[in-house]
């Protein structure tokens, strides 16, 4: 894993956007894996600003999101379908039919999980996956204890995840308790991964990712086994981790 240390949230967002814009220039047909949550909002804002100023085009780009809540339709403002349209897709020139998220309202959710993995495989896989990390080390919605071999699946959200995400809902009782998420093995198939980490709330998780052991109790630890991971972390996120210079971390 490569670690890029930046000052703050703005710089993290800028750096991530620069990497992705460069990749789109190299390969206009890139297949992007995308994430939701608070962390990537600034990154999407910068991609939108660049699209408006420099006309970087997403016409040939395809996207695949990590996860969706079970039971929320795409018109629900708390769904990740809605988040992606509102935060990113509606502001760029990507074709709606080239954007993919798991369907959290599918009648047969098991079938939906297999469909999602098979579709990604059939289309040639994800070139670059943007990831966040949960305070408990989750990636996607793969909570501690998830098998490293997991494919796209239905998961029960950890209480800490429900609490962390309650800020987007009117009350904690409205936070769905289940989600459909790309599995750990599905995420690990991405050719390249960029992990964004910002804020003091993530400092313990980042330290554990860098210094801790490989264990299913800390899902993000699997990233040590991927050959092309770049972590972009700001100073608050790095506050529990001592090193001062950018580095390649031991796998
Ligand atoms: P956040 O979520 O960006 O809202 O902190 C990240 C995650 O839980 O993976």
Automatic annotation (TrEMBL):
**CDD domains, sorted:** GlcN6P_deaminase
Active-site residues per Swiss-Prot or TrEMBL entry: 67, 136, 138, 143
Which organism is this protein's natural source? Answer: Peribacillus loiseleuriae
Q: Which InterPro entries match?
A: Glc/Gal-6P_isomerase (IPR006148), Glucosamine6P_isomerase (IPR004547), Glucosamine6P_isomerase_CS (IPR018321), NagB/RpiA_transferase-like (IPR037171)
* A single BP term in Gene Ontology: N-acetylneuraminate catabolic process
Listed A to Z, the keywords are: Carbohydrate metabolism, Hydrolase
Could you tell me what this protein is called? Glucosamine-6-phosphate deaminase
Q: What is its EC number?
A: 3.5.99.6
Q: Which reaction does it catalyse?
A: alpha-D-glucosamine 6-phosphate + H2O = beta-D-fructose 6-phosphate + NH4(+)
Q: Output the PROSITE patterns linked to this UniProt entry.
A: GLC_GALNAC_ISOMERASE (PS01161)
Function per UniProt: Catalyzes the reversible isomerization-deamination of glucosamine 6-phosphate (GlcN6P) to form fructose 6-phosphate (Fru6P) and ammonium ion.
Tell me the protein family, please: Belongs to the glucosamine/galactosamine-6-phosphate isomerase family. NagB subfamily.
GO MF entry, a single one:
glucosamine-6-phosphate deaminase activity
> Which pathway does this chain act in?
Amino-sugar metabolism; N-acetylneuraminate degradation; D-fructose 6-phosphate from N-acetylneuraminate: step 5/5
Domain Glucosamine/galactosamine-6-phosphate isomerase as annotated: residue spans:
10-230
Provide the Gene Ontology terms for cellular component. cytoplasm
């Amino acid at each position: 894993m490569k670690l890029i240390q930046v000052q703050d949230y703005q710089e993290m967002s800028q750096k991530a956007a620069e990497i992705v814009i460069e990749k789109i220039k190299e390969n206009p047909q890139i297949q992007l894996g995308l994430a939701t949550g608070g962390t990537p909002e600034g990154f999407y804002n910068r991609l939108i600003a660049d699209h408006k100023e420099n006309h970087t085009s997403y016409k040939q780009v395809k996207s695949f999101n990590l996860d969706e809540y079970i039971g929320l339709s795409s018109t629900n403002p708390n769904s990740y379908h809605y988040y992606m349209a509102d935060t990113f897709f509606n502001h760029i020139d990507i074709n709606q039919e080239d954007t993919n998220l798991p369907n959290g309202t599918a009648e047969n959710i098991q079938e939906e999980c297999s469909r999602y993995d098979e579709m990604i495989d059939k289309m040639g896989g994800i070139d670059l996956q943007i990831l966040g990390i949960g305070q408990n080390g989750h990636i996607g919605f793969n909570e501690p204890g998830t098998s490293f071999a997991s494919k796209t699946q239905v998961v029960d959200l950890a209480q800490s995840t429900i609490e962390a995400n309650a800020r987007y809902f009117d009350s904690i009782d409205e936070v769905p308790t289940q989600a459909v998420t790309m599995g750990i093995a599905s995420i690990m198939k991405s050719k390249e991964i960029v992990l964004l980490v910002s804020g003091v709330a993530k400092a313990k998780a980042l330290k554990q990712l860098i210094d801790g052991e490989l264990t299913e109790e800390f899902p993000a630890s699997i990233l040590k086994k991927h050959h092309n991971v770049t972590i972009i972390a700001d100073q608050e996120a790095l506050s529990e981790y001592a090193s001062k210079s950018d580095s390649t971390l031991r796998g």
